[in-house]
Every structure is written in C-alpha cells, then in structure tokens.
Amino acid sequence: MATRKEIKQEAVARVRAERELAKQWRAELKAMPREERAAAKAAHRAEARAAKKAAKAERAARRATMTRAERRLDSRRERVYRKVKHRPQRAIGWTVVVAVVAILAVLAAPVVSDISRLLSITVDSSTADGVAAREHGAVVAEQISDEGIVLLKNDGVLPLAEQKVNVFSFASFNLRYGGNGSGGSDQSSAVTLYDALEEQGVAYNPELYGAMQDAGAKTEEGAANGLIAIAQMVSGSGKGTEPAPDYLTDDVIAQAKGFADTALVVIGNDGVESADMTAGELALTDEQRELFDTVTASFDQVVVIVNSGNQMELGFLDEYPQITGAVWIGTPGPRGAVSLAKVLTGEVNPSGRLTDTYAYDVTSAPSTVNYGDFQYDNTKRGFLDYAEGIYVGYRYYETRYVDDEAGYQAAVQYPFGYGLSYTDFEWTASTPVVAEGRVSVDVTVANTGDTAGKDVVEVYASAPYTPGGVEKSAITLAGYAKTSSLEPGASETVTVEFALRDLASWNTDEGAYVLDAGQYDISVSTDVHTPVAAFPIAVADTTVYGTDETTGVELENRFGYAEGDVEYLSRADWEGTYPSADDIDHEASEETLALMDPEIAPAEGDVPTYEADNGLMLVDLAGLDYDDPKWELFLDQFTRDELVDLFAKGAYETAAVERLGVPSAVLLDSPSGLSFFFGDITAAAYPTEIVVASTWNDELAFELGESVGAEANAYGIEGWYAPGMNLHRTAMGGRDFEYFSEDPLLSGKMAAGMISGAQSKHVLTFMKHFVLNDQEINARAPGVNVFVDEQALRELYLKPFEISVKEGGAMGAMSSFINIGGSWAGGNEQLLQEVLRGEWGFDGVVSTDAVLGGFMDPALAVRYGNDLMLAPLSSSVASSVKQAYDEDPVGVGNGLRDRVHAVSYALLQTELFQ
Q: What is the pTM of this model?
C-alpha cells in the first residue's frame, strides 16, 4: 500500500503536469493570430469537457471493480490531489498571520499601543437591559430558524409517526450552528440536537448514542470564534470528520431496529472567513457513503438533515429509495436544533424556501471555472475573470436549458425558491395590473390541507431577448410575499408589486438601463422553475432610463476598465463562449498595472482651514442636512492631526475629539449576532444570513435587525458591521453562510430589512463587503483583481447594496478587499463617490474591511471616499496619511475634511445623540 508521502508526491507530480500543459496551451494561444483565437478556445474547451467526462466515467468503472480498501485508497489519492491543487485556498489564512507577525516584529513600539487600544475596548452586557435584550434575541432567533428550515423531500415519513428515532452520524453530536471568523457569533447558549429532541418529547436511542460515543463521538464545548476559529479551520483541526461506520456492528444495528423504525442522519460542513471550499468538500465522503449504505440496508425510513451554509451535492437523496425525507437547516443558530425538532414532530410546519440552485454537480455552473487561485506571472497579485457575466445561479440553469427540459432535470435537483410543506395550498392569481410605471399582482392563497402553515408566493419576469443583443436571463425574480399562518380552509390575498423599470437591463451601448419593447411574461410560481400561472405584459415602446430614479443623477458606464480582455458568456453561443481556465492570460496588462499603482498628481487649490475658533460643538449640528453651510464652520476647527486620527483609528472603536464634542463609537461584528474579533462578548446569536433569507420573510429580517439594535443600545455599541450581501457566485464560497443568496433582489430585500430594523434603534449598519467579495482566495494577500462586465456588476453585484441604500436607508458601508479591474474598492472613486454617493444619494460613512493588504492604500481611501480605516495597526496608517499630506496638502487635506464630515454626520444618527 502506498505511503502518505508517496501519495502526496503523486499528487504534486499530477498537478505540476496539468499546470505545465495549461501553460503550454496559453503560450500556443498567445502565438496565434487574434482572429483565430476564438475558434481555438472553443475547440479546446470542447476537448477539455470531453476529457473530463471520460475521466469521470473511467474512474467510476474502475472503482466498481475495487474492494472497499482499494476504494478508500483511491479516494484518499483524490482528496490529496484536490488539496494540493487548491492549496492556496487554505494557506491564505496563514499568509495573513505571518504578515501580521512580521509587522509586529518590525514595528514593535507603535504596535503595542495599537493592540492595547483594541484590547481596551470593553462591552458591558451584564445589565438588566442587556439580559432582557438577549432573552428577546433568543425568541427572534428561534422564530427565524422555525421559518428558515426547508423541507426538501417527504415521502410520508414526516412529521414522525412515532416519537422515537435512531440518530446516526458523528455530525449529530456537533451541529454547525453558524460560521466562523468575523461572521461568527456567541454560540454558548446553543441547544444540542439530542437535548432538543428530548425537549420536544422525541426519544433518541441511548444505546446507539453510547456506541457512537465509544467510537469517539463527543459534543465539543466552548467552540472557538474569531482568530482562533480561523486558524483551526485553515489548519483543518476545526473540521469534524465522519469516520468509517465500523462501530455499527450487527448487534448495534439489531438493537436500533428494535428501538425505532426511523433513522436520522446528519451531514454538513463548515464555512469560515479567509478560506474557501473545494467541490469535493460539498459532496459525500466515502465514509459518509458507507454510513448511508449501512443505515439504508437496515431501515426503510431514513431522514437526512443537511446542516450546511453552502450548497451541497445532494444527488444521493435520489439514489437511496430508503431515504424518504430530507430537511435543510443551513447554519441555524443556537435555537436551530429546537426548530428542527419541532419540524420533525409537526409542531412547526416548514415554510422555508431555498435561496440557491442545488445542482447535482456544483462545478456545472460556469462561474466555477474561474474560481480559485489565479495569479499573474508579471506582478504579485491574484485575479479572477467573472467570464460567466450575468449567468450566475438560476440565471444560468434556467437560461441554458430554457428549451431543454431533459437537460435541466439532469442538471438541477432543487430549483431556486424550492421548498415543501406538510399541507397543500391552492393559488388564484389575478391578472397583473400595470399603472404609473408599476406592476402589481394579487394572489389568493388557500390552505386546502389539514395542517396550518405559511406559503411563499414568488413572482418572476421574463424579458424579450434578441440573439446577439444585450444579455438577458430567461427569467428573474421580480418580487415575493409570504402569507401569515393559515389554518386549514383559510385563505389570504397577498400583493406582489414592483416597478416596470426593474425589468430593464443595463445596456453598455447606451450607458443606461433600457426597457425593450415587446412581450414580458409574468409568472406566479412556487419556485423559479414551477409556474402556477403566467401572464403576458406588452410594452409598446423601448424606454431608456438615463437617470437614477431616486436622485436624478445621470447614469453612465463607469467601470469599463473592469471588463478587461475577457470573453463573456453569451446565450447566443453557449459552447463558443463558455469559460475555460486554460484560456486565461496570466500577464497583467499595462492598463491593469497602472490601476494597481496609480500616480496621483498633487491637487491644485487652497489648503483647508485648521484650528479656527468658531465655538461649535458636534451637537450643534444635530438635525442639520449633510450639506448645511454650518458644517464648514465646524470642520474648520479641527487640527490636521485630529482629522488624521479620526480617519486612521477606525478599527472597532472610532477616535474621540473631546474638545469639539466628538465622542468615540464602538463598532462590532457580526451579521449573526454581536461579536468582537479580538475578544469575547456575551450576546444573542441568530441564524446566519442564508437561513434568514430562506424564510423569505422581510418582517423577520427587520425583527432581527431591531433585536440586534436593542441589544447594541443596552451594551453601549453604536455600529454593527453587517449585513453581508455579497452573492453566492459559486457554491464554494467560504463565507456563503454569511451572505443571503445567489439572487440580488432577495439579498437586497433581506439586507434592507435588517438595516432598517437596526437603524430604528439608532445603530449604524455597515453593509458589506462593497463590492465583489464573493471569494476568499487571495482576497487579503496578495490581493485579487476582479474583472467583470458592467452589466453583471450593476444588475447582480451592486444591486443588493443599491436596494439597501434606497429601501433600507443604509447609513454605513464597508468597502471590500477586492480590486475592481485593478483598482482597490476602498479607494475607488467610481464606486464610492460616483455610484454610492452620486447615483444613489448615500450620505453615510464608509469603512474599509480589516487593513491587511498593502494594496489597501490610505492615501487612495482618503481622497476617494473611504471614511474610516479598519486598521488594527492604526499607527502605520496615520504615518502613511501624514506622508501623503506632505506631498499633497490640498488633495489629502480636503480629503480628510470630507472623511471627518461623513464620520461626524453618521455619529449624530447614533444613540450617542438621541
């Protein structure tokens, strides 16, 4: 048998050979005449797909003749190969740690002061108001997990007929309640699955439980969060594994069969900041498959619990006829197990809906081709080509297979928006009403079953498409509504309303949104692929929307440089334009290199006024508009160093200027409950955002934000680094648990609810990560350039943030690590000044993400709209700003003034001044 070293050597050799072949192909492609490259790329892609398909079939045939031991060895070889191939995905976390250690060694004295400042941040959560807020938070958390659970499959096994069950799998001992990193939360109050079953009166098999304990299963106490959790996950020590089920002896199985007829099996995986997943981690391991082989050989009623914040490959649910039920719980927060137990008994009728497409093969999405570790040969920077364009998630599958139902069924297991119930509903949809630029659809939902329950009405739109014209998805979500709980025989009419303008597409030729003339089909559906009723709407004339509907600011193409030299996927030629990693050019262009290291000429004009004696305190500005002239008099009073401190010291607590009445504000993570990256805090914890979105209930999103806001008030916290609203571009995103969905509308509506809820309590929210932070690999070090066409950028990736500003009234944003075509988001004038503040009318405060990469240049941030540097080592940032000031006192001086204006205005909106 091959040794571990030999297996790793084989994997390294295999990966090197593949990379050398890819390098040779790129060289051949580059040497071709430009007019021949498109055809060569298409042929190469076709060959690669055929080779991949043949290799997969060959491996399956080979494994069919192997013994169990041989299959394990083969699987081990494949796991090591995948790990070697994707090594940078896990190594990146350690890169950051090493970088921080190096900085500490070089800058020991200033660092001690900076770290002491962070560690001095204290939060008192022990007050009576704090305890009451946490108790209320637990109630809200359970309401969300009740409604966020999705019933995937039910052949009559649920609700449980008998209140007894056999629980299998080591994963059942440690449910994944949430993710880790800055998106983690205090899970100290989490209820285990076994305790939840007991609480709900369901007996689990104690003999089986004991057998798993004897085999090594145990419930972990005091799960780590923050930096420790990231280190554990990156190293692999924080990942629970399912062993081979050798402990399930004939005697153990015989006893279990006598205890209950139903078996429960938990599967899941962990997500964490700073690391992404591989496709292999989203599929069953050989040991898990052996477990299912064993359990299904003895039980005809098996219920699978899917405990994951990422889309897993769930085709096995169809392969075993004994699997008669499946429930998705996501990462459901500390009360999630209680909600699950209530669903199993029928006390709660599941009403959640999926927020992503579940494909049989997660790599069948075109976005996965350009996912992973791509780095330039001529500069130290990673890059990603979003070559799939707008075809992300269901936008790809529903469009690619629009006239191929058999192909769709072979590719997609569960469509976006899918979810079952224990009862039956009948819908009566009225003809859509189009008036004054808006579309409204009334749908009467009647409960025709025998169990009370809630239902979700989803409304989709299909726009006319011209081959070769502007890209359009065959269908997009236009709106949705969730009913109240309907008793059997009861009915309710819900109204879904949206602007006709929302159906327009970004047209780069026009530099505007364009609503084409033609027929638009409005479908009232249970999921994106299952319409209940459909209605045509005729648009007589093409309309060009050249200004923003809220501010009236003129629209234009602002991100042409971000498109790069990328061929984007087109529905007019799927095969010819399908992305291929082998076609990627690993050499940064001169234009890209210039964006990565911009030269800024000193600004002309006047140096701003400092240290004026105008007798104003910040409270004197309360209630005034952002552009009131009195602000200029107030800002004239600061010294330069005070402005620098307010800008540079933005990590978790802002700087104070007591003589001008500017207080410090505490700003903490996370979207699933207040937490502090550098310390412990006792706080309520909530389901992660993917579960929040799975409720399809905007009111619950508001209640979550409101609950966190009340808790923040009780603890003396003024700002909340939340919500996260990047998209699930692939199933492998390490922070997918921390984001809502693959769909921008659903993401934006949920985010707007959380934001408006928190801000109703005068708590600043920092919508994040603005923008394109859809992958962790290379994001922090060495940094990553993302290339994306403006249509996809506006219609998909910017849209949730736009909704959050216009509907949620967001007063804060967190810029991302990402470099848009080479230009860092935190110093990107088009993003922060022209779109966010210009087009959308945002008048809040922008913070960076944690300052960990050298590309996060404070001299760019101060000039182009980023107001706070979330810099744990703020002294180095302050020094950089002062150096930039010496070189450009007009540009940097006025930039500092603008940054402090935004920070001061935002502080006035907090509880500090209420």
A: 0.91
